[in-house]
């Protein structure tokens, strides 16, 4: 009997460890995109309190480097993949020098609800899109910048998402992504990559001038440019919005 109890405790312990890995560390990344979206739907209302993002830091450390590389583009069109509660769009729209339009895409409906509430003062300057990142609902070479912050490792197919991001980026456009580097990255095979591996992946997608910036203990911030000449004017956002399916376009969601 004692042996069965001992074995039962071992099984229970393993199940607890699996649950912690599957839903806490990897946030459902190995269970499919819908599971990941579900986990964020559950925490959306308190997500910002949990993360405790500092807007002034994001304006300086994220929006600043991005806009510096877009300084020659008038009215740039920017896509933020896995926008969450609009961390990057808010940092961009807060800067008085930014005269472009931001598309924020996410598969979690509740996260987009929170994003909409935060971005309401900037109506007309952003568009929220309810869609997965594996098949971006945009034409080739649409955006002057494409970003994905703290989310790549939670995608079913990170290399596929990188390819999609590069596809919708215009020649000369700015590519910004984070790569998980802390100890938890070792528990996410196929989701987080060595510096050499992700550099090779980006180069294979036609990205050049790749920079790695130590951003925080959890991530490297990577900036690159797509081969080609940078545009001087962003695409009109109304044209992009009209091309979206009605079920995907969620700006002014309430």
End-to-end separation: 57 Å
What's the overall average pLDDT, rounded? Answer: 88
The H-and-E topology, N to C, reads as HHHHEHEHEEHEHEEH
For the biggest sheet, the summary is:
7 strands, mixed
Uncertain segments are none
- Figure out the total of helices: 9
CATH architecture: 3-Layer(aba) Sandwich
Strand content: 15-25%
Whole-angstrom Rg: 19 Å
Query: What is the fourth-level CATH superfamily?
Result: Vaccinia Virus protein VP39
Q: Based on DSSP secondary structure assignment, what is the total number of beta strands?
A: 7
Q: Looking at the chains present, what oligomeric state does this protein adopt?
A: single chain
List the domain count as a whole number. 1
The CATH C-level name is Alpha Beta
CATH level-3 fold name: Rossmann fold
Q: What is the global morphology?
A: globular
Question: What class, by secondary structure content?
Answer: alpha/beta
- Major β-sheet strand ordering: 3-2-1-4-5-7-6
Q: What portion of residues is helical?
A: 25-40%
List keywords for this structure.
254 residues; alpha/beta; seven-stranded mixed β-sheet; 7 strands
Describe this structure in words.
The chain has 254 residues and is an alpha/beta fold. It has a single domain (48-243), classed as Rossmann fold (3-Layer(aba) Sandwich), CATH 3.40.50.150. 40% of the residues lie in helices and 20% in strands. The protein is built from nine helices and seven strands. The chain has helices at 2-25, 33-43, 47-51, 55-69, 87-94, 109-119, 158-167, 195-204, 237-243, and strands spanning 77-81, 101-106, 126-130, 143-148, 169-180, 207-214, 219-226. It has a seven-stranded mixed β-sheet with strand order 3-2-1-4-5-7-6, with helices on both faces. Strand 2, helix 6 and strand 3 form a beta-alpha-beta unit. The longest helix has 24 residues, at 2-25.
């Amino acid at each position: 009997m004692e042996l069965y109890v001992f074995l039962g405790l071992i099984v229970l312990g393993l199940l607890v460890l699996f649950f912690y890995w599957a839903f806490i560390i990897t946030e459902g990344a190995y269970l499919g995109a819908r599971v990941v979206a579900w986990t964020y739907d559950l925490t959306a209302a308190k997500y910002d309190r949990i993360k405790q993002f500092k807007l002034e830091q994001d304006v300086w450390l994220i929006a600043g480097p991005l806009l510096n590389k877009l300084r020659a583009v008038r009215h740039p069109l920017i896509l933020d993949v896995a926008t969450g509660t609009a961390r990057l769009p808010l940092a961009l729209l807060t800067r008085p020098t930014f005269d472009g339009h931001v598309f924020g895409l996410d598969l979690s409906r509740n996260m987009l609800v929170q994003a909409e509430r935060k971005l309401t003062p900037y109506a007309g300057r952003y568009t929220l899109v309810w869609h997965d990142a594996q098949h971006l609902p945009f034409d080739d070479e649409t955006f002057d910048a494409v970003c994905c912050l703290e989310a790549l490792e939670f995608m079913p197919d990170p290399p596929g998402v990188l390819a999609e991001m590069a596809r919708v980026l215009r020649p000369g456009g700015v590519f910004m992504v984070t790569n998980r580097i802390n100890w938890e990255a070792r528990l996410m095979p196929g989701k987080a990559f060595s510096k050499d591996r992700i550099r090779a992946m980006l180069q294979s997608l036609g990205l050049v001038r790749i920079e790695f910036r130590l951003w925080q203990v959890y991530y490297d911030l990577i900036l690159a440019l797509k081969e080609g000449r940078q545009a001087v004017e962003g695409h009109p956002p109304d044209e992009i919005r009209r091309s979206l399916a009605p079920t995907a376009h969620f700006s002014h969601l309430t």
